[in-house]
């Protein structure tokens, strides 16, 4: 594909940017602001000379200075607040700083520190960012979304009702910060343009009594609305969003267990939508599983799998594995379910549990006739099933005991064990214990970061099942293809693209997933797989997608936003686009 065709791609990042802002207005617009890095020519053209010191800095010099300021903050929350302030001033510098210190800063800008910031949202509040919709004003949704521009100005919408945030529960209107944080990860990891995203909080009240008792709490001071009124609010939002931004990709985040899957199932055949808690966790775990079975020389269609912890994450993982088995074997999904046993707080899921089962759990419930003990323990299930794979999403620390692990290792050469509960103190077992209990035969990945494990004179790398290795690339593929839907086969294609980059494919002692520091390249491969599958299923709306693999990757890279300063080209305000006026992005303004 020629460079001219790439430059003319819909979201091309090559060449200068048109800018209609001058002076202080330019310096106060984070998407355009370069601070001390404005060139001498730009300072003349945009009337900045008297507003800045004489020295011209490079982006590298700015990044060093910003990192020194960051390090001067003594607490994780202080560092988080500093980064929020930097993002409000200069987006390129903000993203460049994180990219250069990704592993160090990821826990600051996301979990666990972002969780603390969310709990204190109403008290740390300085300026609004994002879109605040509340159930008491459903009629205002259309006008509210209209402020974010016409149909072509928004590529990704993330919405949350704040009921189940990052393991810290109901945080009400503070959920706007999780929508913002997730969009930051889309930009960092997949180059989604930061000024083409929309973070939304769907405020339906809160059942967090400490928030209801706080006179400074900024959300609705009422208990959570449920039932038909809640469903009508969500439905109205989705349909207005679809009308306003018909080609946008909608990401559901941190909805409660009673709503998350129900909402996803309701809209997954109508719009391009995704739930990271269900599908993202399932996809990254399935990718690690593909790598593990390659090393162990197992066939996916022969596996016996136990999932310990049957909440949103556990059932999402079960669904992704089930879908992959069905696709590869030609089995019906109902038949593929027979290879998966799910254990929850009341034991193995059985048909006799009836109303205790959520809709997501029903498909995996086993016949009570085959299991006489209604409170079957995990050890009992392991003894009877003799699984190849044991996955933990239970948040029950140390629940994968030595007895359970060694019982599993009696029956399979390479037990595949993924203790995925996080944060770290909630993991079901440590990689070190798993490796030693199985004499090094285990294949493992975790839900939190762990250091390499020394075993018999060598180091074993431990991969983290980090959703950020998969969901940004899926979103990028959906955005560039203008996908109509996100189908199970598109997700499996994404999973295989991620698994194909695993170091363990070349070295069995290496990680089952690639390192997060390579995440932008990972996202290119994941996006390419999603796009090709969308084209195969005729679910793409973009007309100019290259068919050659090399050209497709070049086309994807050209449309990924980079944390680099682009030259600014002055244009007149009259007739200028919203982008040139600095009106796009998460601080959107009224559109006439």
Automatic annotation (TrEMBL):
Which of UniProt's keywords are assigned here?
Metal-binding, NAD, Oxidoreductase
**Catalyses which reaction?**
(S)-malate + NAD(+) = pyruvate + CO2 + NADH; oxaloacetate + H(+) = pyruvate + CO2
Keyword Oxidoreductase: yes or no?
Answer: yes
Give all residue intervals belonging to the Malic enzyme N-terminal domain: 87-268
Respond yes or no to whether keyword Oxidoreductase is given for this record. Answer: yes
Q: GO molecular function terms here?
A: malate dehydrogenase (decarboxylating) (NAD+) activity; metal ion binding; NAD binding
Q: Which domain of life is it from?
A: Eukaryota
Q: Listed GO cellular component terms?
A: cytosol; mitochondrion
Query: Where does the Malic enzyme NAD-binding domain lie?
Result: 278-535
InterPro entries recorded = Aminoacid_DH-like_N_sf, Malic_enzyme_CS, Malic_N_dom, Malic_N_dom_sf, Malic_NAD-bd, Malic_OxRdtase, NAD(P)-bd_dom_sf
Write down the required cofactor(s): Mn(2+); Mg(2+)
Give the GO biological process terms. Answer: malate metabolic process
Residues that hold a divalent metal cation according to the record: 253-254, 277
Question: PANTHER family, from UniProt?
Answer: MALIC ENZYME-RELATED, NAD-DEPENDENT MALIC ENZYME, MITOCHONDRIAL
Family from the record: Belongs to the malic enzymes family.
Q: What is this protein's name? A: Malic enzyme
């Amino acid at each position: 594909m020629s460079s001219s065709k790439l430059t003319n791609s819909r979201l091309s990042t090559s060449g200068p940017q048109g800018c209609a802002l001058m002076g202080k207005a330019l310096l106060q617009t984070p998407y355009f602001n370069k601070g001390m890095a404005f060139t001498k020519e730009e300072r003349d053209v945009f009337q900045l000379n008297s507003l800045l010191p004489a020295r011209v800095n490079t982006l590298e010099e700015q990044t060093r200075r910003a990192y020194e300021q960051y390090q001067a903050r003594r607490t994780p929350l202080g560092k988080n607040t500093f980064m929020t302030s930097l993002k409000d001033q200069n987006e390129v510098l903000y993203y460049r700083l994180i990219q250069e210190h990704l592993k160090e800063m990821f826990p600051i800008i996301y979990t666990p520190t972002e969780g603390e910031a969310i709990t204190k949202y109403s008290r740390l509040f300085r300026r609004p960012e994002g879109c605040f919709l509340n159930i008491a004003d459903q009629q205002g949704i259309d006008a509210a979304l209209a402020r974010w521009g016409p149909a072509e100005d928004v590529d990704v919408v993330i919405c949350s009702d704040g009921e189940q945030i990052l393991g810290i529960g109901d945080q009400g209107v503070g959920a706007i910060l999780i929508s913002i944080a997730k969009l930051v990860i889309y930009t960092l990891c997949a180059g989604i343009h930061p000024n083409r995203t929309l973070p939304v909080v769907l405020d339906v009240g809160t059942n967090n009594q400490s928030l209801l008792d706080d006179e400074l709490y900024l959300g609705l001071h009422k208990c959570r609305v449920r039932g038909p009124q809640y469903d009508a609010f969500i439905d109205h939002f989705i349909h207005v969003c679809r009308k306003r931004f018909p080609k946008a990709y909608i990401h559901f985040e941190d909805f409660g267990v009673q709503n998350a899957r129900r909402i996803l199932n309701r809209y997954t055949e109508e719009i391009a939508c995704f739930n990271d808690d269900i599908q993202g966790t399932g996809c990254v775990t399935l990718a690690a599983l593909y790598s593990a079975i390659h090393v162990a020389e197992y066939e996916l269609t022969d596996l016996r799998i136990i999932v310990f912890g049957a909440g949103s994450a556990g059932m999402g993982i079960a669904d992704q594995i089930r879908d992959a088995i069905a696709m590869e074997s030609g089995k019906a999904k109902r038949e593929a379910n027979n290879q998966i046993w799910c254990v929850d707080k009341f034991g193995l899921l059985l048909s006799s549990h009836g109303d205790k089962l959520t809709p997501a759990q029903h498909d995996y419930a086993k016949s009570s006739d085959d299991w006489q003990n209604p409170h079957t323990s995990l050890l009992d299930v392991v003894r009877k099933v003799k699984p190849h794979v044991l996955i933990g999403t239970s948040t029950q620390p140390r629940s994968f005991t030595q007895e359970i692990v060694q019982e599993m290792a009696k029956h399979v050469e390479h037990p595949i064990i993924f203790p995925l509960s996080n944060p770290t103190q909630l993991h079901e077992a440590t990689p070190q214990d798993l490796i030693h209990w199985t004499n090094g035969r285990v294949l493992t990945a975790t839900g939190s970061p762990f250091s390499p494990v020394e075993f018999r004179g060598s180091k074993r790398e431990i991969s983290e099942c980090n959703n950020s290795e998969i969901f940004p690339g899926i979103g990028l593929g959906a955005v560039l293809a203008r996908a109509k839907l996100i189908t199970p086969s598109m997700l499996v294609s994404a999973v295989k693209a991620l698994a194909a980059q695993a170091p363990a494919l070349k070295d069995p002692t290496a990680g089952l997933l690639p390192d997060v520091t390579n995440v932008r390249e990972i996202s290119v491969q994941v996006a390419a797989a999603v796009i090709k599958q969308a084209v195969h299923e005729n679910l793409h709306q973009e007309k100019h997608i290259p068919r050659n693999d090399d050209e497709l990757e070049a086309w994807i890279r050209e449309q990924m936003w980079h944390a680099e300063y682009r030259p600014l080209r002055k244009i007149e305000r009259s007739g200028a686009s919203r982008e040139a006026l600095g009106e796009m992005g998460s601080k959107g303004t009224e559109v006439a």
